[in-house]
Design goal:
Nucleotidyltransferase, domain 5, five-stranded mixed β-sheet, alpha/beta, 20% strand
Length: 145
């Protein structure tokens, strides 16, 4: 009976094939280009990484097309907020809501080379709240930590 139930739902491998296990996939060797580990600060909200995500369609319910993602480097805790637009008003609203949820603004905020966060009213807002914003150089966005 077990065989009859399993056959339509699973494929059996040949005895010559090695079964794939989680440890085979999880232990894939990474390239040796990044040999230095990123230091983890000791304090919560000392260093936070931030990025703006884009979607193909608007979200059902609130109509957001973008999201803003924050990750604390110490705890790896993350926050995700919907964004309907990329205006400075929307970005400042999300940053304010996030600081309330997190309990404070971070000391340093790392982001890719995103002018929406590095320039203009949003950058001034972060500067007024004593947040140091660091952006990756152009062409090096994958190395922002």
């Amino acid at each position: 009976m077990l065989h009859d139930v399993c056959v339509p739902n699973f494929s059996f491998i040949q005895p010559t094939e090695t079964p794939v296990e989680l440890s085979n996939v999880a232990n894939i060797k990474k390239s040796h280009s990044n040999k230095n580990l990123v230091d983890r600060p000791k304090d919560f909200m000392k260093v936070v990484h931030c990025d703006i995500g884009y979607g193909d369609t608007k979200a059902v319910g609130n109509g957001a097309r973008y999201c803003m993602i924050f990750v604390d480097r110490v705890t790896r805790y993350n926050w995700i907020y919907p964004l309907k637009s990329l205006t400075h008003t929307s970005l400042k609203a999300v940053l304010s809501a996030w600081s309330v949820d997190a309990g404070q603004f971070p000391k340093r905020l790392y982001t890719d080379f995103d002018c929406k966060l590095l320039e203009g009213h949003t950058a001034a807002f972060l500067c007024n709240n004593k947040v140091i914003v660091r952006g990756s150089p152009s062409g090096r966005q994958n190395q922002n930590g």
